[in-house]
Design brief:
The complex is a heterodimer of chains A (249) and B (204). Chain A has 249 residues and is mainly beta. Chain A is built from two helices and twelve strands. With 204 residues, chain B is mainly beta. Chain B is 7% helix and 24% strand. The chains are: A mainly beta (249), B mainly beta (204). At the A-B interface, strand 1, helix 1, strand 3, strand 8 and strand 9 of A face helix 1, strand 5, strand 6 and strand 10 of B.
């Protein structure tokens, strides 16, 4: 819960997830999903207090450079190499209301498409000044922002010649554990998006378009960094007006 | 025509991928100096009330192999059955307990491990008490949308027998997939993504 909010904590259950909008567990074009997808049906459960509640993180966990990937791993006076960009947007719920005070975590490859990870073997070079992780907490209106370099595309051993489009991974908390979401942001105009088997796990073209951040010329800073805008929508909450509130609910 | 309800669609999920550790546990993936510690790596301290326990296990794929690149998060009540969340209106949870933990499965043997406490009981929507449980969320390469499940405690025979969620599992032999094995203060909870021993996963 963000400081300064005058609204009561919300305890309504979340809207049911539209699992036809999300990718299915089994999506064989993405080969690893074949053995990692449950085959039995999920057991449905309207949210109990175990899912309606969730962890909330205070600003005290944040360091000054947590939302600046250009500098948070760089040596003093140096910076990461690549196209400087700002990524910003709002966290909203399905009712269009801002979701304040939620932690967002980001991770990505460097400008050449190389991740700083011991299991990554791509021959593109590591950038000594780029780590690839960052985080931020949404403000009272749900806004978040971070600076980074635009990641490169990279090849992966799925099909013989599969390449991921440029993307940034997002992990988002809401106010309840049932809102927990991990997704990927893509960049407007990237022709690689429509060739990617991971993007292609999402059945609906409109749902894919929800993951594509437009170039935000208005917020581009002259002689510094271009901006991309990426809004994130978390599950809405039912109004407690509609809850059958028995003791302890 | 009628009015538009005006709802937005939830942002679709995508896999966390094989390098999820860069973002969620950078110190574990040898990206030091950005965050002081990996978030969620410590849930308890010396003052945390309740029975201190270890929860460990592996995530197993449909071929029986351990998944060595997953990240698990757990969420649970404190020993009095209160959640450390602003949406908890029944009381104030133990300030020395976060209720939330995050742990990668080891890149060598696939094992995850949480140091936590045994949770108290919390009510179901109709007021009945649920059996003590830990909510578990799993992401990994190959998992397109995070998988939710619950871990229950084997010594809670009576509570488990009256648990409203466990009661809804039609195929009774599948209940066992949600109940950990106990040895001393260590609970082992293996999660099977697929196949004969497939864990019951939840749409919550």
């Amino acid at each position: 819960m963000s400081k300064g909010s005058n609204s009561k904590p919300e305890t309504g259950a979340f809207f049911a997830r539209d699992r036809a909008w999300h990718p299915p567990a089994f999506a064989p074009g993405y080969k690893t999903s074949v053995l990692r997808s449950p085959q039995r049906a999920l057991l449905s459960l309207d949210g109990t207090i175990s899912e309606i509640t969730g962890p909330v993180f205070g600003h005290s966990i944040l360091n000054e450079l947590d939302n600046d990937l250009i500098h948070n791993f760089a040596k003093p006076g140096e910076s990461a190499i690549g196209e400087r960009i700002i990524v910003h947007g709002r966290v909203l719920d399905e009712r269009g209301r801002p979701v304040p005070g939620v932690l967002l975590e980001f991770w990505q490859a460097n400008a050449g498409g190389r991740y700083r990870h011991k299991k990554e073997t791509y021959l593109a070079a590591i950038d000594p000044n780029f780590g690839g992780c960052g985080r931020a907490i949404s403000d009272n209106e749900g806004h978040y922002a971070f600076r980074t370099i635009r990641p490169g595309a990279y090849p992966w051993p799925n099909g013989v010649n599969d390449w991921r489009p440029a993307h940034i991974h997002f992990s988002v908390f809401g106010h309840g554990f049932a809102q927990r979401l991990i997704t990927q942001m893509y960049f407007e105009g990237d022709p690689m998006i429509w060739k990617c088997p991971i993007v292609g796990t999402i059945p609906d073209k409109q749902a894919i378009e929800q993951l594509i951040a437009p170039l935000d010329w208005g917020n581009t800073i002259p002689m510094d960094a271009r901006a991309y805008k990426f809004d994130i929508v978390l599950r809405g909450r039912r109004s407690t007006l509609f809850e059958n509130r028995l003791e302890g609910n | 025509m009628v009015q538009d309800l005006g709802y937005l669609k939830e942002t679709p999920s995508q896999t966390a991928g094989p390098y999820v550790h860069i973002g969620l546990t950078p110190n574990y993936s040898e990206i030091g100096g950005v965050y002081e510690t990996d978030l969620g790596s410590v849930m308890v301290n010396d003052k945390t009330l309740g029975e201190h326990i270890t929860v460990t296990g592996r995530v197993i794929d449909g071929a029986g192999a351990p998944v060595k690149d997953a990240v698990l998060e757990i969420w649970q009540a404190d020993s009095a059955g209160l959640y450390n969340s602003p949406s908890e209106l029944r009381g104030t949870a133990d300030p020395n307990f976060t209720g939330w933990g995050r742990c990668p499965t080891s890149s060598t043997d696939g094992v995850f491990r949480f140091g936590t406490i045994k949770p108290g009981r919390v009510p179901f929507k109709d007021g009945r008490e649920m059996a003590p449980h830990i909510t578990v969320w799993i992401v990994a390469r190959g998992i397109n949308i995070g998988l939710h499940t619950r871990m229950y405690f084997p010594e809670e025979t009576e509570a488990n027998a009256e648990d409203p969620l466990l009661a809804r599992i039609e195929h009774r032999d599948r209940l066992a997939t949600l109940i950990a094995a106990k040895e001393g203060s260590v609970y082992t909870f293996d999660i099977h993504l697929q196949g004969d021993k497939e864990t019951v996963f939840l749409d919550i």
